[in-house]
Amino acid sequence: MAAAPSLEELLRGVAPECLDQACRDDHLSEIALSLTDWQSLAPFLGLSEVDERAIVCRYPHDLQMQNIAMLRKWKSEFGQTATYRKLVQVLFKREKCNTVDKLCHILLQEEAESIRQQPASQHSEICTAVASYADYLRGRYQTQIPTFLTLQWPPPPTRRVFNLAMIQGQKIRYGIDEEIVGLMLQGRVNDVLDQKTPVKLEDIFRMDSAKRQVILIEGAPGSGRSTLAWYICQKWGSGELFREFKAVVFVQLRDPAIQSARSVEDILPAESRGQAVRVGQEFQACRGQGVLWVMDGWDELPSCLNESTFHRLKVLFRLNKPLSRRGSIFHRLIVSPETENLHLSTVVITSRPIASGDLHPVVSSRVEILGFTQTEVKGYFTEAVGGDTQTLQKLQDQLRERPVIEASCYLPLNAAIVTHLFLAQNQSLPTTLHGVFTSLILCYLIRHARKEGINFSDISSLDNLPRYFHKPLQNICALAYHGVMKNKVTFSAAELEPLRLSQELATLGLMQGVESLAEFKKSTSFTFLHLSVQELLAAFHISKLPQSEQVEVFNTLFG
Description:
The chain is an alpha/beta fold. 49% of the residues lie in helices and 9% in strands.
């Protein structure tokens, strides 16, 4: 059984001056709701047996009023010395950690609200120390382009389009109509259930300014979540948007160095470890005020980090249990920022919807990237074919004959893949989505062979590949399979080395390397070109297993 948190852990983030203030009546009334045996506390607060009997006589059958009366009697007896610190010490001594945690939460909320209501001139000096680091970040965001935005495979749209909607609740549905059928064809199942309202990017931090904001941005694979996350940082860096923040910190959760982080300084992009440590201390000194954390890729965390650890924290959060410094730093920033003295900071998290369910109870709002509208899809196709009206018409005609593929093009990356294949395959498209991603894989295998001076022009299926490809593709399919089984989409160079895959992956081009943004701890992680590519290769691996092993796999996945 885990050890109970110390008093120091419970009080982390609460200003000493707050603890030394006399308790407010409304706070005492709120704390009284969580007490069940007030008579065990009364003697330690300095109340006599006579006081206790008087309280019971006054409220003989109302335990809640007895709790309130006891605390108010203590305050009336001791006046200015009836402080939060004294109450916390007594509660902790009597093993009331849950109540201590609740009281600390009340004080932190009061402090945060007080700072928000102050004129900017009264607290702007608090974050002056981070100004030089903010300048460093602006320079990085304006001059550095992450590798996930520079990869030259199916070309992305030249104009970034972010159609967003705030998820507000559940729709009430009766029966199945044409809208539901259309949404199901597009794979947008959550649109059937969720009620959404369009929202502009510049307004996502204005939706609920009365409390600390933790905003979850969801989107299907290929919708542009990572691009949007970096775009937020760029727009802040250029001064065009989000000027209310003193510093915007991009945290790439797919980065193995980030996944092993233990402290604030471990997740800060910085020139040196010393700079990261100093900035982390400065952030904590101002309690995170004016700091925006942009955490990209919640779904790319290993399952041991984004499921079991967070589930424990979420349960504690729901039950109002004490939250200590256990768990990863990004979990603490989301659920218990007071443990890091960062409870005034704001957080944005991006994720696939299927991987973010555990976050829903603890985020302040959910926003979805909707992808292209029909008009934008047509505009992208027009741009991709160079404005050739005949080619555009032929592409549109083929898509109308393939409604599932056509419906998937609301995702920018899917639209890019479709046009890439259409132009690369003599203006002809596969008939299914499975065929689309199979053709994409085959295109890259052929490209690799040509780079090596080998001409394979008759490759039409993964089942009849030339012998040249057998071993490297077998290894890649095995890696994809093990990733799917572990809910893993990101792989470190160290994970590839035992499989002797590093060179093969680089040449076959079915995975992309993504460099860490931290200058003082450079590392490279690898992901497949698209989640569907990984899933297809994993399925191909399963198809080559003996039948008995296939049955075992299916029982694991669906049993």
